Amino acid sequence: MTRELRFYADSANVEEISGLLADGLVHGVTTNPTILERGRRSVRDIPELYARWEAEGAREIFFQAWGDSAKTMIGNAERLAALGSRVVVKVPATRDGFTAAAALVSAGATVLVTAVYAQAQALAAATIGVRYIAPYLGRLNDAGREGVAEISAMQSLVQGSGTDVLAASLRTPDDIVSLAEVGVPFFTAAPAVILAALYSEVSDRSAEDFEAAVARGLQD
Ligand code: E4P
Fold it and tell me: Is 187 within 8 Å of 7 (Cβ atoms)?
């Protein structure tokens, strides 16, 4: 059985994302209100960002619903989902977020439950039928927890349920590799981390050697 693996850009930096999409290096773009703020954007920019990333070839574009009640969150999520078929609506793993997630799944939206920090939350999200859960590796580790082991357990819990782990808070290529080794299929990280995953000094030296050989051959 083949196993699909994907990288996503966790960013609202449109220049960096354009490059990754144009080069075919990421499946899509993930955002949340914090990421929008870091990119000097706000929820007001979401329709423009959706149109831009859709035109640039992103296959999935994630925006997070906001609001201090499930009802508000659902209303905002419905407006996000109406932007187009490539929208995945994120909701936080809170009491209101789970209510919103269940309603949105029933209405046919593609949903990701984000900021998942507990095994039971991962399981609950899968029982609702969300497409993705996003546990945060770096923040789990920051809290003194065994991030890879905990996300590995979440992966086992949801395996085969139709809910997949899309891991976030990945700060190094090794973070991604450690989770891939325990079966996690999907990863979202800042563009710099994605680019770092492509890099080895030895590969660059090998490429220089190849080019030098070509040049020598052309001198004959
Ligand atoms: C994703 O949704 C998170 O905001 C992001 O991955 C957090 O990363 P950080 O913990 O490195 O800030």
Answer: yes
Q: How far apart are CA 179 and CA 174, in angstroms?
A: 9
Residue 71 known to be catalytic: no
CA 206–ligand 1 middle distance (angstroms): 34
Cα(74)–Cα(66) distance, integer angstroms:
9
Ligand 1 atom closest to residue 115's alpha carbon, by position in its atom list: 2
Is 161 within 8 Å of 126 (Cβ atoms)? yes
Band (189; pLDDT cuts 50, 70, 90)? very high
* H runs (alpha helix) in the chain: 14-22, 33-38, 46-55, 70-81, 95-106, 119-128, 137-142, 147-158, 173-181, 191-197, 201-219
Q: What is the pLDDT of residues 152-162, one digit of tens each?
A: 999 999 999 99
